Amino acid sequence: LDQENRLREAVHRGELRLHLQPVVALPDGQVSGAEALVRWQDPQRGLQQPGSFIPLAEETGMIIEIDRWILLEACRTIRAWQEESPATAPAWVSVNLSAIHLDLPDLTDHVAYALATTGLSPHCLVLELTETVMMRDLAVTSARLEELRELGVKIAIDDFGTGYSSLGYLRDIPVDVLKIDRSFINGLVGNSRQQELVSAIMQLGHTLGLRVVAEGVEDADQLTLLTVMGCKFAQGYHLGRPQPPAELRAGLTVAE
Ligand code: G
Ligand code: G
Ligand code: MN
Ligand code: NA
């Protein structure tokens, strides 16, 4: 079987897995939310990272099915935690959507279906789109995102700062969350120019009333520095790897 058929079969055989990476609030370090990330449990090659199959999934359109499965699974999982242990459950979950979804007229219906069928509150769902979607037809993108926001879900710009797009879209496009790309966090310590840049991005976001998340926090020094800089949300290996939901859940404790 070629790779495309293997991936298609994987989806139908139930070999996809939902992993969750915690997003913490600063300065207290409490888990605030989680990002849903897909994995493929390949019986032949073991657990596959998305980098090895997402590009093919995007080329073939299979990404639509994959993203929709992850969306349902993420909503179901977080809703169940919120019911069973409301004191420790993440308040929200963010799900990645490939740009191709914006061309599908039934996107909003599908998101509404996921919320209705799982019972998750729309305010607990964040949809992550990369900045490159803003290089598409802004009128179409804006209309789709407005439809989604009318459901009550939030929109995040993922990999913020890397999309080579104009900042002008922030004027026209309804967004709620900026996720500062990890390339800005990597090398932050000891680089004052980079610190000024990250501070400016955080200020821009906060001034616009957006939630700003620093991605790719890999050590304690970065975390301390970001906290001093006024960063309110962070995500990265230092704070928690993407992991099976049961593992994340076992590590969650009540705030002191
Ligand atoms: O886990 P890893 O760093 O290999 O992820 C690589 C890329 O795959 C990241 O850009 C991430 O956003 C993307 N990705 C992970 N899970 C999903 C998913 O469920 N849907 C989509 N569209 N992209 C995903
Ligand atoms: O593009 P997106 O932001 O969705 O990518 C998320 C991917 O980044 C995940 O697949 C995850 O494996 C990876 N990731 C998460 N935290 C870190 C980190 O601290 N360092 C690095 N290098 N990658 C990370
Ligand atoms: Mn993401
Ligand atoms: Na990112």
TrEMBL record:
Annotated ranges, domain EAL: 1-256
- The protein depicted here goes by the name EAL domain-containing protein
